[in-house]
Every structure is written in C-alpha cells, then in structure tokens.
Amino acid sequence: MTTAKPAAHRIEREDVVLWLLAFTPVLAWIVAQGFSFLAARSICETGNRWVLFLIMGSGLAATAAAGATSWTKWKQFEDGSPAYRRFMAIGSVMLAALCAVSILSLMIAAAIHRPCD
Questions:
Q1: Angle between helices 50-76 and 13-46 (to 10 degrees)
Q2: Which of 5, 59, 85, 109 would you call most buried, defined as having the most Cβ atoms within 10 angstroms of its Cβ?
Q3: 8 Å CB contact between 54 and 97
Q4: pLDDT value at position 87?
C-alpha cells in the first residue's frame, strides 16, 4: 500500500486573512473609482453630488479598516511567527495607506471639480 505524503505547506486561516487584508484596499479603490464613474451621468442629471462622497467615503472606510486590522495583525505577530506573515501584514498597511491617498485624491477632485462642467 502507498502512504499519502503530508503537504509541504498547509494553507492556514491566518494566511487567508492576510491575503484578504492585502486585497481589500485595492478592491475598495477600484470599486470606488468605478462606481463614481458609473454614477457621473445620474449625478449630472439630478445634481446630487453627495452620492460621490458616499461612494468614496465607503471605499475609504473599507481601506482604513483593512489598514487598521493589518496593523493589529503586524503587532500581534512576534518572533515565533513566520517572517512572511509579518511582511504581509506590514505590506498590507503600506498598501492601505497608498490606496487611502488615492481615494482621498478622488474625493478632492470631486469636491473641487464639478462633474458636469
């Protein structure tokens, strides 16, 4: 009979959480930009500019939540944890900061520039 060999690396729940924390800010940025583009026509027709701030504000909130959770995870990991987990956690914090600046730049443009002009 043959015996099954154990997997070289087992995917753990913590790894999946770290990947989700890395992808959340980027997806929030893409969704905020895409929805603001799609909503531009109805904003021009109705004049409700608050919709842009609602869309971008929710994207900024998701980005900030992912960044804060990543920071907490990074502080949680001590010397006994694998180095790649600490790297992914602090990398997610930096990625969240970059995406937050990008979303804020979209909000500034929406506040200054009138989309229908």
A1: 170
A2: 59
A3: no
A4: 94
